[in-house]
Each structure stands twice: as C-alpha cells, then as structure tokens.
Amino acid sequence: MTNAELFTLTYGALVTQLCKDYENDEEVNKQLDKMGYNIGVRLIEDFLARSSVGRCQDFRETADVIAKVAFKMYLGITPSVTNWSPAGDEFSLILESNPLVDFVELPDNHSSLVYSNLLCGVLRGALEMVQMAVEVKFSQDTLRGDNVTEIRMKFIKRMEENLPAGDE
Amino acid sequence: MAIFSVYAVNKSGGFIYQYDNYVHRAEAEKTFRYPLDCVLKIHDEKVVVSFGQRDGIRVGNALLSINGLDVNGKFTADGKEIIEYLKDSTNYPLSILFGRARLSSNEKLMPASMFHSLFAIGSQLSPEVGSTGIEMLETDMFKRHCFQTLTGIKLIVLTDPRQSGIDELLRKIYEIYSDFALKNPFYSLAMPIRSPGC
After folding, report:
1. Which chain A positions have a beta carbon within 8 Å of B171's beta carbon?
2. Measured between CA atoms, how close is B156 to chain A, in angstroms?
3. Is the C or the N end of chain B the one with fewer CB within 10 Å?
C-alpha cells in the first residue's frame, strides 16, 4: 500500500465516523470545514518555510501559487485556474483528480455531503494567516455526478490586523 | 558560542520561545575576608556592587553565589538576607561569585516587546513600500538578526558579529518551528513553546 492510499483511507475513515457521530450531512460539512481550518492555519507555516514564496502582489498571483505550488506540494495534483470573475475577485480551481476521493462512491442517503469539504477549510485557514479573508466552496463535485471537481474561491477582504512589515 | 540566543516572537509581540546559549564571560569569583571591601546595595531584588570595582568585579555586577550556592534574589540559598549575612564576621572567609546578572523571563520580555515596536516603526519609516522591516541590528559585541514570516512570527537570533550564514539559519529555524507548530496538535498557535532541554 502506498502512502497516498493510506491517506485516502484515513480521510475516508474520518468522514464516515463523522457521519455516524453527527447523522446530519450539513453538520458533517461544517465539522470538516472547521477541521480543515485548523489544519490550514498550521499548514501555511510549513508551506511558507519550505517553498520560500514571497508575498503575492494580487489575487491572481495567489491563485497561481495555490494551484501550482501548494496543491502540487501537498496533494501531488495541479488544478487549473479558470472562470475569473470580471472584478478579478473570484476564480475556480478545476481538479481533474482528487486523491481524497479515490474509489469513493457517495450513497444516496448522503446526497448533500460535501465529501472533500476539508479542503475548503484548509484553504480558508491558510489564507487567513496571511491576512486574506476568502470564501471557499465546491461548486462541482465528481462524487455527485459532475464531470469535474470545481472549487470556487472568492476574495472577501484584506484583513487589517496586519503585519507591521510595511504592507500598506 | 557564536550564536548567543534565539527568540521567537508572535504577531502581537509576545514571546513564544527563547533559548540562551551565552557563556557568562563576565563573572569573577573571589575569596573574601571580613570586612568586605565592596559596597553592595539592593537593586531590583538583586544584590549589586555599587562601589569597589577591582579584579574583574565591576560596578553593576550582581552577587550570583556565595560559597558555590546560588543566591535567591537578596537572600542566600538557605533564606538568610545577604546583606546581614555579609556583616557577620563569623561567616568569613567566604567565596563570592559576582557577574552580570542573568535576566529573568520577565526582564527578557521587556526588550523583546520593545524590539517588536521598534520593528513596526522601522517598517513604517521605509521610503519604499513593501519593506521587510529591520533585518539586522549591529553592535561591536553582537549582531541581532530578525526574520519576519508572512504570518507575523518574528525569529530573532543574536550572534557574534563575525558569524555568517545567518540567513540560512533563520530559514532553518523557521522550518523547524513550522514542524513543531504543525506536528503537535496540542500546541496552540501563538502560545509559548515548552520544549525540554531549553
């Protein structure tokens, strides 16, 4: 068994246990988001320490760094960045494959479960630690019958409990 | 020896971590006979030399230990008041260690917070946007390097002025810190790090 499969199995065990504990898809989604958030606030330090990327100048750069560096580093996949809103504050990450959902099939009684919602929390938590408030959600999910998995990210605002490092 | 201390300060200026590695070079131990020829006074809960500088004992040095037993503020190890103890001729001859007073945690916190504020002012004074803030403070005795991460953690390293390769060291410390912040789920972010052996 490779490391990736252990990861998929672990994540699967986590989600099924949450489903048993909460018996409510909405609640499970919330818990996954919270857990993801806690992972994100820590993961950002590891990411910054190992990748030595500097501060992104704008949201487009952020999107590129997330897709090409972060996803590559942690999940081994490179989603594509598309569907920019006219204002440049929203974009989509299209994932051709998602290691979390290898071999997973959602049963009918869990139709509103967002299985990979942990990822949304991770992205939200990580960006919050670098002073960006964002909204992250899945707009398409292969587990629910769509062709691709799409994560929609929207920039809310710059957080002003800022670093005194001369950033604005 | 060339690296004197490592500190980590969080976003709000509080200490997360401190490690001091300096050998106290400025210490002098002497055997004294009654009466004591230095004048001592109490300052900040410590007994310090106010007059009588000689033989490596300087004004401002604190009394660190008597006969090998570390003192506790202005009391000896067994609870007697030092000044009274030293007035008693039956206690002599005794050996006293004087030296630069070791800073308590609280005392270290103050300069660290001050540095944090200086750092903030430093970045605002920058003529260009996007300054990294104070990177290095140099004196004749030491250099103070500071590295601020994008998440607001400041890693501060005090080194010998001739020491090189500090940038790498700072990155390495950042990596190690991120490992600790990550891999221990019980560690709450921005809280002081309790590490054995430090």
Report:
1. 49, 52
2. 15
3. N
